[in-house]
């Protein structure tokens, strides 16, 4: 899937109606069809992961340096918007970064969210559940890390690991998988109905691009800490994981929490696309500062 490059809207002012429509049209090409609540959510041709080209750059200007400058500008603007988001406190924001090994989750955190104040932005890098977490339902630990009013939480991996790893390894049955899809949809609907805005990004890279990034971690001693031999086991299951991703995208892209597939073979484009979409979503909230405090009117500090 590809499209003509488009410049992201610039500046602090909300985009014009035409810009908003252009962005919405572009975004729609990178979102799987919405799952119908309560339906079996069978795979469809329209929702095939193969239809999304990981090497595409739909948000690029075809000028890498210009794109990098845009990412920096957007990161600064997101810092301003986050400050307003924190002051407004009517919403919470959950950003989910989901993808295979080396898809760029850490890089997205650095490139898009690092300018924001740590007072109002947190991140959680999800690992395999520990003994205490395994003693509870699989969403128990997830719920504890939901953002509070005015806060932004960014997930590096997420509860979607629970419909990926167990599925690929055959630890749960198809019926249990379908049940988990529905439970996750209901969980996210509850979050949405209680003020949490959910942005879900699937960082989509190619098999060859993953090989290059993993090899770089092997060749560079300063990146050995990012590599685990278990990554190679998962790579051997590439086709199974791609199928599991396709299934979950089709089953859990809902009106209240739609998925966006982010072509991520280009690191710069990945950051540009996500920063643009986070900015646009925050602008759509019509954020505002709290009402003026009458007690402060005319107050002089001595």
Radius of gyration: 20 Å
In the sheet with the most strands, the strands line up as 2-3-1-4-5
Structural class: alpha/beta
How many helical elements?
11
Morphology: globular
Series of secondary-structure elements, N-terminal to C-terminal = HHEHEHHEHHEHHHEH
Q: Could you name the ranges where pLDDT drops below 50 across 5 or more consecutive residues?
A: 1-13, 41-46
User: Helical amount among residues, as a percent range?
Assistant: 40-55%
**Main pleated-sheet profile:** 5 strands, parallel
Overall description:
- This protein is an alpha/beta fold and 302 residues long.
- Helices cover 43% and strands 11% of the residues.
- The chain contains eleven helices and five strands, in the order H-H-E-H-E-H-H-E-H-H-E-H-H-H-E-H.
- It has helices at residues 17-28, 64-88, 105-113, 131-134, 140-143, 165-168, 174-193, 207-219, 230-236, 238-252, 267-284; strands at residues 92-99, 121-125, 152-156, 196-204, 259-263.
- Strands 2-3-1-4-5 form a five-stranded parallel beta sheet, with helices on both faces.
- Helix 3 (105-113) crosses helix 11 (267-284).
- The radius of gyration is 20 Å and the shape is globular.
- The chain starts with 16 loop residues before the first helix and ends in an 18-residue tail after the last helix.
Core attributes:
5 strands, alpha/beta, globular, 302 residues, five-stranded parallel β-sheet
């Amino acid at each position: 899937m590809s499209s003509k490059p488009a410049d992201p809207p610039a500046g602090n002012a909300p985009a014009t109606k035409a810009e908003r429509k252009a962005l919405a049209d572009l975004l729609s090409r990178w979102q799987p069809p919405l799952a119908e609540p309560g339906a079996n959510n069978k795979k469809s041709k329209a929702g095939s992961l193969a239809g999304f080209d990981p090497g595409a750059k739909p948000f690029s200007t075809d000028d890498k340096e210009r794109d990098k400058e845009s990412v920096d500008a957007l990161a600064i603007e997101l810092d301003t918007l986050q400050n307003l988001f924190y002051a407004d406190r009517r919403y919470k924001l959950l950003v989910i970064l989901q993808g295979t090994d080396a898809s760029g989750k850490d890089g997205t955190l650095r490139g898009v969210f690092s300018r924001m104040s740590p007072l109002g932005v947190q991140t959680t890098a999800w690992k395999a559940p520990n003994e205490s977490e395994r003693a509870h339902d699989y969403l128990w630990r997830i719920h504890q890390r939901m953002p509070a009013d005015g806060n932004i939480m960014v997930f590096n991996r997420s509860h979607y690991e629970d419909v990926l790893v167990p599925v690929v390894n055959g630890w749960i049955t198809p019926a249990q998988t379908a049940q988990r899809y529905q439970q996750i949809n209901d969980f996210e609907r509850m979050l949405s109905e209680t003020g949490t805005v959910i942005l879900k990004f699937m960082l989509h890279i190619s098999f060859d691009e993953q090989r290059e990034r993993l090899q770089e971690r092997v060749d560079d001693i300063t990146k050995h800490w990012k590599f685990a031999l278990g990554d190679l086991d998962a790579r051997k299951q590439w086709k199974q994981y791609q199928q599991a991703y396709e299934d979950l995208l089709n089953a859990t892209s809902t009106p209240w929490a739609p998925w966006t597939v982010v072509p991520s073979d280009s690191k710069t484009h990945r950051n540009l696309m996500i920063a643009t979409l986070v900015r646009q979503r925050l602008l759509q909230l019509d954020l505002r500062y709290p009402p003026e405090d009458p007690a402060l009117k005319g107050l002089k500090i001595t």
